[in-house]
Amino acid sequence: MSTPDAAEAARPLPADDPSPSADGKDGRDGAAKDSKDGKESKEAEGSEGSEEHEQPQTAWSARRDLIDHSPRSMNLGDRARFGGSMVGGNQHGVSGGQVAGDVIMGSKTEIHQWAIPGFSAPSASASGEVPQTTLDRLAASFVAAEETVEALLVRLRRDRVLVLSGARFTGRHTAALMLLHRLGAAPVHTLDRDTNPSTLADKFTAPDTAADGSPAAGATAGGTPAHPRGYVLADLVTRRDRPLREHHLLAACDRLTVQDAYLVVTVGPTAVLEDVPVVTWQPPDPADVLAAHLRTRVAAQDDRGATVAKLLDLPDVTEFLSRSHQLREVAAFAQLLGRYAAGEVAENAVAQFSLISLENQVQEWFEEDESSIHLRDKAFLVALAAFDDGPYALTAELSDLLYRFLQQTQKPGSAPEVPVFGTHIGKRLQLARAERYEDDEHTEWGPVTQQKAKFTDERASLVLLREVWTGHPSARPALIDWLRRLADDGRPLVRTRAASTVAVLARTDLPSAMALVIQPWATSNRFRHRLVAVNALTLAHLLDTPNIPRILDEWSKGEDRRLRWVAVRAYALIGAERPEQALAALRTAARSLYRDLADPDDFDREMARELGEAVALLLLSEASDAVLAELRLHLPDDRPVHDLTIGGFVSACRHTQDDERYGHPLVLAWYAQSATEGSAAAHGIPFLWRAALNDPNATRHALDVLREWVLIADRSTATEWALAALLPTLVTTPAEYQRLGHLLRTMPGEDGAKPPGVAARLLTTLPVR
Q1: What angle do CA 392, 394, 397 make, to 5 degrees?
Q2: 617-668: per-residue pLDDT in tens?
Q3: Fewest CB within 10 A of the end CB: N or C in the chain?
Q4: What are φ and ψ of residue 266, in 5° steps?
Q5: 604 neighbors 561 (Cβ within 8 angstroms)
Q6: Superkingdom, according to UniProt (predicted)?
């Protein structure tokens, strides 16, 4: 049993009750790991006494930031009840997290061959004649708006040259071949994509003649070709010092006119063009492309289209089409569906194909050399994975920070260089298969409208982070330095996304993520870093990462109070899944505060407050009824548990709906609902209220909360009715009647105003004892 002074010090303080900061003993209990660079270490870990100058963010506020800023891939749903309020909303965290965890672990299947024999356009890098059989097969499944094709044909007939611009894998190459096919061009030749634009006209020669001077095959007796010739220059390589200029096309046009030939050039969105008229290619609807390919594939076994219709109605097909897949993936999917219709593959292969396609795309991004995808663009892809659905400007800013770290890894002796200008938002997002949009972002000042960016497939961020961490270990040092810098950022969104990124890495490779990132954060002297560790462990658990509860159990019993702090905070967030075990761990931690307490000044007030806030969050979680029952059961165990229970309950009573100053008190709303339903909480909540009011060391805090509830009731009829139902249950003795009666008779209004009228009305509800 502690001394009275120590007992007073042991009371878990309310969340908003000011207190001295922690005593800074963290540095003596264990040392955080140093980073490779001394300057980075100082920024990441802080000095020995930095904790004395930093106040920890309250558990409730930290929980709100985690909910507001966690990525959509974590599937926290409407954010209403993740480790929090039972008033409204549904629980989405754990079940959705398991789905995300499955995505992170991958399909465990590799399919790298996208070319569909007879149905894919020839390679853009190939040079030579396209077989007529290939053109015929492509024509059988080619889909495009007829008015679009006609407009392009009119332009091609007139100008002889057409430049089509579009993103990769949108069907622009196939469209080029089909335009020439519609014109009746034969033969059709593909030109080398490395053709120098200045020598483009030299590629078009006069029609060949036979050695004896007779017309070549395909030509008339007069030497005129029976059909116009066609040329395709796909994915032309251009550079700033080698652009495609207008006069290059004019020279080519003269040669093409003489030869009676046509040329279609396809370029990407980043091509360097000067005064060149360009037509933007819009890809056809994937559903139409899939249907066309299926009609071709299953024509022999189709009964008036019934087989195609049945395949298109499959739930997995609907899911696939909702994912904005590229046309090459659609064509490959059609091939797979054809095999499925023939009984050659199982239904599981159809279900897995969408994820496999995404995995292959991500692997392609990072396997490409810098001439195809620059290191800066790869850094942006990683940053977008971390900040998916976040502000674009923030993502771009922090992607350049990662780019610097990657340059240091790639060229250790040279200074990192980041171009200030020269990036095109649209082209960058097109490469990433992402989109930009306008939406509100949560901030400490309220919602703020921002330009945001996100992958079109929400699974991309999870797959990408796994690929970078496990498939490209050389990038780990830069990624770790980047994450440590993010954890030190002043913006809650940035710190939360650092945590969510590490959670994905932990789901993939827990030992490495713990050793390299999470444990250094958890043993930091700075509360900010430890809170990032808390969030990383919490989100990792929601992703179904194994052994997180075991880690917390060990840390909560350890000697390092920094690790105990992290464990307590994490229990508050994930303990609702296992409330009995979480509360048992919190009780053990509370008892340890009193163990061997020779000097009351040594009492860890900071940890006592954290324990109380953890209990408060659990009381306001979806496991609220189970938590309340546990608290009632163990209240008389001993003084540490009594103080923990009462402090946590009073702290929970301070919270209101949406954290509004005059919002409906959450515990009061819980009581009103339970009283209507006749549940156990209708007795448990008054029981703990009476215990708090009758505890000399907690009475003042409890009365302060009741005073706040009365002021809220003065503005809210619903709160007044709920309070009118609760107050009579708090009076079982004359002393309790006198205490509450005195409060209602003497309490002033806000800012010293006259007593609120609701106080007199509530006074009449108290039963005389």
Answers
A1: 110
A2: 999 999 999 999 999 999 999 999 999 999 999 999 999 998 888 999 999 9
A3: N
A4: -110, 140
A5: yes
A6: Bacteria
Rg, Å, the chain Cα set: 34
Tell whether 97 is covered by a domain: no
Q: Is residue 229 part of a domain?
A: yes
Shared domain for 304 and 332, answered yes or no, is yes
741/71 Cα distance (integer angstroms): 49
User: Count of domains in the chain?
Assistant: 2
**List of the chain residues with pLDDT < 70:** 1-53, 75-102, 104-126, 206-225, 300-304, 422, 596-602
Q: How far is residue 353's CA from residue 3's CA, in Å, rounded to a whole number?
A: 67
In terms of domains, do 190 and 323 share one? no
Q: Which amino acid is at 84?
A: G
Contact yes or no for 558/564 (Cβ under 8 A) = yes
Chain centroid to CA 479 = 17
Confirm whether 735 is domain-assigned. Answer: no
For 322, the domain range is: 286-345
Residues 260 and 320 placed together within one structural domain of the fold: no
Contact between 549 and 581 under an 8 Å Cβ cutoff? The reply is yes
CA distance 436 to 392: 8
For residue 440, the tally of other CB atoms under 10 A from its CB is 11
Please enumerate in sequence order all residues whose Cβ is within 8 A of that of 582, keeping only pairs 6 or more positions apart, or say none: 571, 574, 575, 576, 618
Express each pLDDT in 408-430 by its tens digit.
Answer: 998 887 777 777 776 778 888 88
Total residue count of the chain as it appears in this document? 769
Give the pLDDT of residue 224: 56
- HSE-up of 27 (CA within 13 Å, CB side)? 13
Amino acid letter, 708: E
Show the tokens assigned to 485: 């810098």
636, containing H or E segment: none
Read off the tokens for 260: 């009676």
φ/ψ of 94, rounded to 5, equals -75, -45
Spatial CB neighbours of 63, under 8 Å, sequence gap ≥ 6: 82, 83, 84, 572, 573, 617
Instruction: Check whether residue 323 and residue 233 sit in a common domain.
Output: no
Structure tokens at 438: 């306008």
- 294 plus 167 within the same structural domain: no
Q: Which long-range contacts (CB under 8 A, 24 or more apart) does 200-208 make?
A: 200/233, 200/248, 200/249, 200/251, 200/252, 201/248, 201/251, 201/252, 201/254, 201/255, 203/231, 203/252, 204/231, 204/252, 204/255, 204/256, 204/259, 204/261, 204/263, 205/255, 205/259, 206/258, 206/259, 207/259
What's the Cα-to-Cα distance from 209 to each of 191, 218, 227, 464, rounded to whole Å? 21, 10, 15, 55
Give the Cα separation of 465 and 543 in Å (integer).
14
The token pair that represents 415 in the structure block = 């200074």
